[in-house]
Structure formats: C-alpha cells, structure tokens
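Quick illustration for those who missed Monday's session on complexes.
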Amino acid sequence: MRYNRFGKTEMKVSAMTLGTWGMGGVGWDRYDDETKADAIKAALECGINFFDTAPAYNSGAAERFLGKTLKDLGARDEILIATKCGTFFVDGMVYRRDCRYESIRNQCEESLKNLQTDHVDLMLIHWPDLNVPFEETMDALNTLKKEGKILHIGVSNFSVAQMKEAGQFGEIDAYQPQYSMVNRDSEEIIRWAYEQDMGIMTYGSLGGGILTGAHRVQKEFAAVDSRNRFYKHFHEPMFSRIMKLLKVMDGVSGEEGGKALSQIALNWSSQKEFVSTCIVGAQTREKVCENAAAFDWSLTEDEIRLLDEAVDALYA
Ligand SMILES: NC(=O)c1ccc[n+]([C@@H]2O[C@H](COP(=O)([O-])OP(=O)(O)OC[C@H]3O[C@@H](n4cnc5c(N)ncnc54)[C@H](OP(=O)(O)O)[C@@H]3O)[C@@H](O)[C@H]2O)c1
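Prediction with NAP bound:
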C-alpha cells in the first residue's frame, strides 16, 4: 500500500479508501453480512486506513454495518472515517437534501451512533443544498468541530464557486468528486482544490465497475441500481466507446504480465499528483485484495500516455 498526505491535514491516508455505498444493501449487488465484514477485514490487512460512508447509503445502513464491523474487529482507533451529511435517502428510492443548521447537528449525532464512535475524522457536505445558505451549514459544522465530534470539514460534488463561498465561513480541508478514466468532468475543479491544499478523495474510481472488464456485454440493471441511475456510461453512447478503452487496457495488462484491469484504472487515477486517495466500492475479500494490489506497482510514463490517448478518444 502507498500512503499520502491529505492536503494540509495531519492525516496520512492509504492510496485506496474503501467505499461502503454497496454495503448499505441498496443500489448495488447484495452480499451476506459475513462476506461484507470479511471485505472490511481484508481492507485492514491490505493496509487500507481510510473508510468512506454516508447516512444516504440506505438510510444509515452502511454506517451501521461499518460501525459494527470495526467494533467487532477492535479497529476504530487504527483507522480514519469519512462520513457525510445533508443528503437523505427516502422511501428506498429518492435522495433529498437538507443542510439546515439543526438538521446537520442531528444528522451528525445519528452518524456517530450508527458508527459507534465519538468522532469522525472527516465530515463532508454530500451535495450542495441550494435552499440553505452555506453560512448556516458551515456554522453547524464549525460547532461540531469545536465540540470534537468532527475533526475536519469537507465538501463533495461542489463547484469552485460553491467552495469559495462556503470557504468564507470555515476551513474546508477535503474535496470528494467523481473522477476516473471514464469521468474527468471535475478535473479543473480538482486542480483548483489541490492548489488550495485540500485532500482530494475521488469516487467512482472504477467507473462503478465498468473499468474492471467485468461488464463487456450491455445489460439492463434494476431501476434502483446505481449502474442504471448514477453511472450512465453503462448505456450507449459511452458503453461502446468504453469497450474500445478496455481493449487498450487489455494490451497494457498483457505487457504487465496479466495485471488486473482494476489495478490499471486505479494506478491511472492515483498516479495523478492531485489525487490523495481513490475511493473504491468492493464488497468481497477477493475484490478488495485485487484492487489494493494496484499500489504494489506503477504504470510507466509510456503506458500512461497510451491510456491517456484512449481516454481522450472517449470524448472525441
Ligand atoms: N460523494 C458522492 O457523491 C459519492 C458518489 C458515489 C460514490 N461515492 C463513494 O465512493 C465509493 C466508490 O464508488 P462506487 O462504489 O460508486 O463505484 P466504484 O468503486 O467505481 O465501483 C464499484 C463497483 O465495482 C465493483 N468492483 C470493485 N472491485 C472490483 C474488482 N476488482 N473486480 C470486479 N468488480 C469490482 C463493485 O462490486 P461489488 O460491489 O459487487 O463488490 C461495484 O459493483 C462508494 O462506495 C462511496 O463510498 C461517493
């Protein structure tokens, strides 16, 4: 495992963060509790020290599962937890935003209970709530920080203008955008956040799984599945273009003695100077270990150039 500084914070984070959206049990393939707990144990064994979760991942279910498993493993003090606030998952289908002062305070208390801890290392605003002034949300977060319930404040899915505005009312230490070979939409915002010395934790690092090569035939996912509603590139026109990219990745894999495509995708992201840690959602020991092994080797400059050309062709 490689470890990186996380912006201007004192945190040293593993180059891979384990994401727990799937572990909430909605929007992704489902596994039994034993399998998921073993994936978390494997993450610790591979040297992963950063875990990302949110109350929106099935109304606290992912937080509760992570909290219970870390408690069972006695691992809370060895690792760092990032959770989020301001977005609720309602009726098993709809996401709703609420970043009002009292709501943020209550959500944090609920998250601490779910996670069975007295503090989280990082609390991110999940999505901007345009109905509530950033000043009000930041006030709530600053108070939670003073109380020692959250150690750092971050934002996810914000624009530069939104970060500048929210940043007037408190220190923003981290930015969590989507970023991968199949989604570079936020790259300019990321570079700006990096210049401000924020820790950058990128999500969807495997493009929701498409970059592993496990989905080479287009299929229909359930309406609530994240590969249907969130990661749109599982559908045309992007699907066919990504299949061409996978062929280039197959070639790099061949040159590297058969390295997994997931490892190529993770190295492509994590070798960017502005990425502190790639968040990866994986719910089995095998997948966690396969992904974590990405950080035992690196892509060469020639390989990165070849991959960059194939990535550029996605948008040509
Ligand atoms: N801030 C935000 O708005 C936001 C949005 C999205 C995600 N996130 C965070 O980022 C995390 C990662 O993103 P994500 O989970 O959406 O997408 P992702 O990590 O790009 O992809 C997850 C998918 O890849 C599969 N997978 C993982 N490793 C694999 C391997 N080696 N071989 C084959 N398949 C593999 C997973 O399978 P299984 O699940 O079946 O194991 C799952 O279907 C989330 O869990 C969440 O913590 C944050």
